[in-house]
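Write out this protein's structure.
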Amino acid sequence: MKIVNLSGPAVIDGAVRYPIESPLMVSDDEADRLKASGRLYGEPEDPDDAEDDDVDLTKMKVEDLKALAAAEEIDLGDAKNKADIISAIQLAREA
């Protein structure tokens, strides 16, 4: 999994995604495809290498937050809404 920032609209998993939705969590293959097509602002990042301040969790969609948590092996427990998921990720990163 990679964290990417879009430079323009792109089709990801059958849906059009926009730069305002960035950062997004995508598969390695998807990140490579987006990079090759010139749709990325900057380079794809590994979630484990990203600094906590590099990615604004509040700008991510719930599905991307869940993917980030899975990539970082963070147990979300009962967290279902965006605020609870963000809190769970932040707490796990601080531990």
